[in-house]
């Protein structure tokens, strides 16, 4: 696979990777790619941080400043 194809594949398996749904071979391939690719590693970090934020928001009230930032990011459809 080309590097672009690996990034596309990594994008597809990022959520299953975070959910620990990949088999051992897929997990190893994803980890190898993440170790080499800064772009995909940044995407992984973003998704992981977002999951942690969501988990915390269930038990902690959201700070008003964060709530405002998220509101500003909302897109009109």
Key attributes of the depicted protein:
about 80 residues; mainly alpha; 4 helices; about 80% helix; elongated
Question: What's the short story on this structure?
Answer:
Helix content is 79%, strand content 0%.
How far from one another are the termini?
A: 35 Å
Uncertain regions spanning at least 5 consecutive residues: none
Helix content: over 70%
Radius of gyration: 16 Å
Shape: elongated
**Strand tally:** 0
Query: Biggest β-sheet: count, sense, barrel?
Result: none
Binned strand content: under 5%
Number of helices in the DSSP assignment: 4
Q: How many structural domains? A: 1
Mean pLDDT across residues: 88
Order of helices and strands: HHHH
Structural class: mainly alpha
Structure explained in plain terms:
It contains 4 helices and no strands. With 77 residues, it is mostly helical. The protein has one domain. Helix 1 (3-18) crosses helix 2 (24-36) and helix 1 runs parallel beside helix 3. The longest helix has 22 residues, at 38-59. The protein starts with a helix and ends with a helix. 5% of the residues are buried.
How is this fold's topology laid out?
Elements: H1 3-18, H2 24-36, H3 38-59, H4 64-73
Helix pairs in contact: 1-2, 1-3, 2-3
């Amino acid at each position: 696979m080309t590097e672009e194809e690996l990034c596309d594949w990594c994008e597809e398996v990022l959520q299953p990777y975070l959910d620990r749904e990949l088999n051992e071979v897929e997990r190893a391939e994803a980890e190898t790619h993440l170790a080499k690719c800064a772009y995909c590693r940044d995407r992984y970090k973003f998704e992981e941080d977002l999951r942690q934020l969501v988990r915390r928001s269930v038990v902690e009230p959201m700070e008003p400043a964060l709530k405002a930032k998220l509101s500003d990011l909302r897109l009109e459809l």
